[in-house]
Amino acid sequence: MLNHTRLKFADPKADAVELFALSADQLDAWSKDQPQTVRTWVDRHGFKAASGAVCTIPGEGGEVAMALAGLGDNKTRARERFVMATVASKLPKGNYKLASSHDIEDAEEHALAWLLSQYAFEIYRAQPPHEARLVCPEGVDKDKLEAIAAGEALTRDLINTPASDMGPDKLEDAATELAKAHGAQVKMITGDALLDQNFPMIHTVGRASATPPRLIDMTWGSEGPTLTLVGKGVCFDTGGLNIKPAGSMGLMKKDMGGAATVLGLAHMIMATGLKLRLRVLIPAVENSIDGSAYRPQDILTSRKGLTVEINNTDAEGRLVLADALALADETPPDLMICMATLTGAARVAVGPDIAPFFTDDTPLADALRNGARQARDPVWELPFHDPYETMIEPGIADLDNAPKGGFAGTITAALFLRRFVTDTSRFAHFDIYGWQPSPAHARPKGGVGMGARAILAALPKVLDL
């Protein structure tokens, strides 16, 4: 899954057609500087620089001599990103180079959009490639953008693969392959060994599956600040004995989207050589049903010693994450980030396109917001609202995994996880969706990374790299 050869820039020494990326308000000024034949051609073809529009201008021999890409008007630009991906999919075969003047952030967006436009999920069926290639714009870090695109592609592939081929064992294989590619170390704790080593909630959630649960623990780097990424790896979620209806179960292959996202982010970090010490923890389970399945009203004792009353077996993600967070907290990193496809309430709050996050650290929140803007990777801060703490306290146990009433489900889930981190000042939790419900620029329908690029952009500020 790491072999994403399509997601590369063209050879900078190759002949390339000039591509002018123009907004609607730039078109007239550009046209005035062109020969009459070019102006006539553009006008006759009705090119108005609409978002994603393309116009190719032929040379004397019929070859493409020049190309125009539409970025839309100011309103369109404000609400759309990665328009250049749609342009790339429309252009004929060949190499192209941006001819317009852009600031570095715009050039990076256009270049990354182009790379992401080349993504195709090909595990089960070959997909015809887009054959237009881009020369990396001057001033843009080519290797970094290729690493980001490859990390995003890894995340998408992992999410898109059905549970028949992406169970806990196969997620382990993916982590092992990633570790091998970057010289990282990885170890697993599997099956009943989870009980022996005090990961009772990971074991309980996953024990009903034919594929044993496991904890994946990957480490990389020998110098610099410490960063721990924890990703929810529920490879399929039936809901357990509180079984989901068919309509809700259909997308549950993506319930390991947190794990897929932290693995993609880990690739970005390792491939770009950030000077930090990285740890990735993934509790990998399938929430299934058999005679050993855990039940509503069961009370579990977590690794940290906190007891949890089970009021819904479909709120399993916070259980497996709790044990992994408790392990991470035993050797506190400089920064801990948790990523999970955790609650439907998050989608009700912000929809499928935004990654909500929680943190008690204002500078960290500011860095994530700035990173999101820079990386065109939208995030939104939601509060760890302390008055809601009582909602996760059932009385019979320390914690309730599914408070009744349905209010503030995203916040109560985040508060639950925070209970397993001692020093929350350098902790952030992302409640992501991991799925693109309909095609958009650079984002085909299917699995998608959320928040990873924002985090990558924020790390140098947060960890003084």
From TrEMBL:
Q: Print the keywords alphabetically.
A: Aminopeptidase, Hydrolase, Manganese, Protease
Any one of the GO BP annotations = proteolysis
Its EC top class is hydrolase
Species the sequence originates in? Litoreibacter arenae DSM 19593
- Which residue numbers delimit the Cytosol aminopeptidase domain? 312-319
ATP-binding: present as a keyword of the record? no
- Please name the GO terms that the record assigns under molecular function: manganese ion binding; metalloaminopeptidase activity
For whether the record's keyword set contains Transport, the answer is no
The record's similarity note reads:
Belongs to the peptidase M17 family.
Q: Which domain of life is it from?
A: Bacteria
Q: What is this protein called?
A: Peptidase B
InterPro entries per the UniProt record, alphabetical:
Leucine_aapep/pepB, Macro_dom-like, Peptidase_M17_C, Peptidase_M17_N_1
Coiled-coil boundaries: none
